[in-house]
Design goal:
The complex is a heterodimer of chains A (611) and B (262).
Chain A lengths: L1 H27 L10 H10 L1 H38 L1 H15 L3 H12 L3 H25 L3 H9 L4 H38 L8 H10 L3 H30 L12 H31 L7 H5 L14 E6 L9 H8 L2 H4 L2 E6 L7 H6 L5 E4 L1 H9 L4 E8 L4 E6 L7 H6 L2 E5 L4 H10 L4 E5 L5 H5 L4 E5 L3 H7 L4 E5 L9 E7 H6 L1 H20 L2 H10 L5 H16 L10 H13 L20
Parallel strand pairs in A: 1-2, 1-3, 6-7, 6-8
Antiparallel strand pairs in A: 3-10, 4-10, 5-8, 5-9
Chain B lengths: L11 E10 L2 E11 L4 E5 L6 H9 L6 E6 L2 E2 L10 E4 L11 H11 L4 H14 L15 H13 L5 E5 L7 H18 L2 E5 L3 H7 L2 E6 L4 E7 L13 H21 L1
Parallel strand pairs in B: 3-8, 3-9, 6-7, 7-8
Antiparallel strand pairs in B: 1-2, 1-4, 4-5, 9-10
Helix pairs in contact in B: 2-3, 2-4, 3-4, 6-7
């Protein structure tokens, strides 16, 4: 008892030391919360906020169920297929190298398809856990069965044992130590597989950890991301510990690895030196901690303060100014104006050398631009608010879409008559995790009757199931469906009164202060770009489809036709934003609990007058 | 312990048996007759094919040429030779995850004997080797000598008509070995089983064997056979001058074998 306490105490102390060091570094270097939260922020989420922590622990429970189910299936399938591979020579030579491929499956790529193959709910997630966990079990079973002591085999030969007797009484028993090692590795992997699966598939009604992570990433709530990551690590460790304990119980009567090593003398000598080193380390950490906590916590407005430039002259040089714009998705008509300005040379006319950087799923554009990794980035209107609420110096400079571009699509023959009736009738609805408008619609029309499932960006399920509804960009997915011969009806979310600016170009305050002319030049070039693109998008679309072959030219042209009312909206000038709209968005996001404190709406964006 | 006596111990007829592996000829034209119920010894230098010959008798390998007959019937190789044969390897070869009694039970389990019957048979056999109190222990909790006795019990549990022993005590110290020899002798007396034993020790060979067959290497063959007439066999004869003479005689014959090899 005393021994096991002593053994457990070192890793716990080490973990505490790491957490304290982390906290110190975050405070000393004033790393903002939206870049790296401190352990105290994470602990606050985990233990202080009852609603937040209840959701997290419920999510952890769901993840644990899926991981355990996947692990058990992997164990049965792994040992069974390992046995078959080990006992049939032809299969071992032919299939075992193929089984290796399982190890190299980029599960994130397959995860969106798991819904389709295994259905929604726990089965798809468990399948993801199983795929990730199964290889070490197969490999260890094959190696273990191959390593049966030939001396023991002689004994079984002598008494004419049947193949089943050999497997049951000799093979599995001999392989047990290796299989247990495989199971322990697989236990941790199963949890990783489950979380990856949950990131893009599974149900959202009571979100598991992966879905919580996806949602928190979308809303830049990194403290929540880390809390969920911490919990998933805890689930993984628990499963690992459980399997290790089970393995120990199975092997401890006879296997040498389970016997304690007793070498009192040597360990005694070592501890004297070790103790001194640990003591010195603790003193250093303590000193650092006292220093770090002596000042106020400046992290929230760290970047804002350092960028408080006093009369920084806006030096406009004659040569071309290099500008990096980070997109949050692959080249599609939603960026039509940007590419048009680029291809037609409108940026060059403003003396700008612009690089448009392609995005993709999961890219953290708000963080990239807030920390100055890029000069501009495409973000959503809601992201500007959630980031500013955390003190991020993010400023919207141009709204590519005046009207909110999100909507919900259903088949024409099943279409309800309004967004409200869609929301309040039953049936599945595929959405991405963490979209604020879902909470808004629940607030506006009452808790939805629909069961929310993750879309993973795929339309396959929608095509297969007529009763399916799916959250979409109003001018993107419906076009694809139309081209596939599925007539649909689109319900724009803006009809519900939730109408944030979309595909917003944002910069950070420091860049804006130091380069006001550049920002104004980008605004002008973009307005020209959109004007030209809306008039005739064909030439630019032809270039876009070269960069993004997944979307055909025909689909791009059709999308561009539908885009105009969303780009123009009610604004008098392309791209210009109004204070009331930002005030309204902040109010709405506060009402539905996406942000707790309101940022100053007038600092969320800049107008066009700035020169 | 009369119930341990097999109804009918096997005799063995080995006729012109040869065995070769990839590495070359290991046994060359072996002729050997072993009487039912006798105790036969194979001695010879390392690499003379003693173990190979024993494995052929046990059915673990098939001869390349020649015939092996058990009690007049010609057994085909490879075939299920286990019926009526007990085999003890150079090492105990116990399954480390099984208790002593579960190890002893194994041959009966593989032959499909009912679990009640096999436990009672195993307990009797453990009593025979003096391990009735260690039935629940695991192999790693036993000394080398005790492990070897478990291995003999496992070979005996099927009540074999022929017991093949391959240097069973080679790894033991002198004192344990002498005691094990005494126990083996007692076991033979009590059960009347035919025993063929391979050994390196001429003292052991003379003490146990009624017939000692000397083998030479490259290729393995039987060069001499010696009938040991020492009766009655008991621990006391070890200190008699007659015993010492027999051992000396055996040494002489072994020297001849090795000489013939050169």
């Amino acid at each position: 008892m005393k021994d096991s306490l002593k053994r457990a105490s070192s890793p716990i102390l080490a973990a505490m030391m790491c957490a304290i060091l982390w906290e110190d570094c975050v405070r000393l270097f004033q790393i903002p919360r939206y870049v790296l939260p401190a352990p105290s922020d994470i602990a606050l989420i985990l233990f202080a906020d009852p609603s937040e922590s209840a959701a997290l622990f419920l999510g952890a429970q769901q993840t644990a169920y899926a991981a355990i189910l996947g692990f058990l299936i992997a164990t049965i399938l792994g040992v069974a297929s390992g046995t078959v591979l080990a006992s049939v020579g032809v299969l071992k030579r032919g299939l075992y190298p193929l089984a290796n491929l399982l190890q190299m499956v980029p599960i994130i790529a397959l995860a969106p398809l798991l819904n389709i193959w295994f259905g929604y709910g726990i089965s798809g997630v468990a399948a993801s856990a199983c795929i990730v966990a199964i290889f070490p079990i197969i490999a260890c079973t094959v190696d273990g069965l191959g390593g049966v002591n030939p001396h023991h085999r002689d004994v079984f030969d002598l008494y004419g044992a049947t193949p089943l007797q050999r497997w049951r009484l000799l093979g599995i028993q001999s392989a047990l130590p290796q299989i247990c090692t495989g199971l322990r590795v697989a236990a941790g992997l199963a949890v990783i597989g489950a979380v990856v699966g949950e990131l893009v598939s599974g149900v959202l009604d009571s979100p598991p950890l992966g879905a919580i992570i996806a949602a928190a990433l979308r809303n830049s709530a990194l403290d929540l991301v880390f809390a969920a990551v911490f919990l998933s690590a805890a689930v993984g460790f628990s499963l690992f510990a459980l399997v290790s304990l089970f393995a120990h119980m199975l092997l401890s009567p006879w296997h040498p690895s389970t016997r304690p090593v007793t070498n009192q003398h040597r360990t005694h000598q070592k501890t004297a030196v070790e103790q001194r080193a640990v003591l010195v380390f603790c003193v250093v950490v303590l000193g650092l901690t006292l220093y770090a906590f002596s000042g106020p916590d400046l992290r929230s407005n760290a970047i804002v303060n350092t960028s408080g430039s006093k009369g920084v002259k806006a030096i406009e040089v004659s040569q071309q100014r290099q500008v990096k714009i980070q997109l949050n998705w692959v080249p599609e008509p939603e960026f039509g104006g940007l590419y048009e300005a680029h291809l037609k040379g409108y940026f060059k006319d403003e003396n700008l050398d612009v690089t448009l950087i392609k995005g993709g799923p999961g890219i953290a554009t708000p963080q990239l631009v807030a920390t100055g990794q890029v000069d501009f980035a495409i973000v959503s209107g809601s992201q500007v608010v959630t980031m500013r609420a955390q003190g991020a110096p993010l400023v919207a400079v141009y709204a590519n879409f005046d009207r909110f571009v999100r909507g919900i699509v259903t088949r024409t023959q099943n279409a309800p008559d309004s967004l409200e009736s869609l929301w309040t009738t039953s049936g599945p609805l595929a959405v991405e995790a963490g979209l604020p408008f879902v909470r808004w619609l629940n607030h506006r029309f009452g808790q939805t009757q629909r069961s929310l499932v993750q879309s993973g960006g795929s339309l396959t399920e929608f095509k297969r199931r007529p009763e399916m509804a799916q959250a979409v960009f109003v001018f993107a997915e419906p076009i694809t469906l139309e081209l596939d011969g599925i007539p649909t009806r689109v319900f724009p979310v803006s009809d519900s009164g939730f109408n944030p600016y979309s595909v917003v170009l944002a910069t950070n305050e420091r860049f804006l202060k130091e380069n006001p002319q550049t920002v104004a030049a980008v605004q002008r070039a973009l307005a020209r770009g959109w004007d030209s693109y809306l008039a005739d998008p064909k030439a630019t679309n032809a270039e876009l489809t070269k960069m993004n072959p997944a979307m055909s030219l025909r689909a791009m042209n059709l999308a561009a036709e539908k885009i105009t009312p969303y780009v123009r909206g009610d604004s008098k000038r392309l791209g210009e934003m109004k204070l009331e709209r930002w005030m309204q968005l902040i109010e709405q996001l506060k009402t539905i609990g996406v942000v707790e404190n309101s940022p100053d709406p007038s600092r969320c964006f800049i107008g066009f007058e700035l020169k | 312990m009369t119930e341990l006596r097999p109804a009918d111990p096997f005799g063995i007829n080995v006729e012109n048996v040869s065995k070769s592996f990839d590495t070359g000829l290991v046994l060359d034209g072996i002729d050997l007759t072993i009487q039912p119920g006798s105790f036969a010894i194979l001695v010879g230098p390392s690499g003379c094919g003693k173990t190979t010959l024993l494995r052929l008798m046990g059915g673990l390998d098939a001869p390349s040429d020649g015939r092996l007959e058990l009690q007049g019937e010609n057994r085909h190789f490879p075939s299920q030779m286990s019926e009526g044969i007990g085999y003890c390897f150079q090492e105990p070869r116990l399954l480390p995850w099984r208790t002593v009694i579960d190890n002893v039970v194994l041959p009966l389990e593989l032959q499909g004997v009912s679990s009640d019957e096999r436990v009672s048979l195993a307990r009797e056999t453990l009593h025979l080797v003096g391990l009735e109190n260690d039935a629940a222990k695991l192999p790693h909790q036993l000394s080398g000598g005790m492990q070897m006795r478990v291995s003999i019990a496992r070979a005996m549990v099927t009540r074999p008509r022929l017991l093949l022993l391959d240097e069973p005590f080679a790894a033991l110290d002198e004192i344990s070995r002498v005691r094990m020899d005494d126990e083996l002798l007692k076991l033979w007396h009590e059960t009347g089983v035919t025993v063929v034993m391979v050994t390196h020790s001429l003292t052991e060979a003379i003490y146990l064997g009624q017939e000692v067959h000397f083998m030479a290497a490259s290729p393995g063959r039987i060069t001499e056979s010696l009938k040991v007439e020492l009766d009655p066999r008991s621990p006391a004869i070890r200190s008699t001058p007659a015993f010492a003479e027999w051992v000396a005689l055996a040494h002489g014959m072994l020297a001849v074998c090795e000489g013939s090899q050169l």
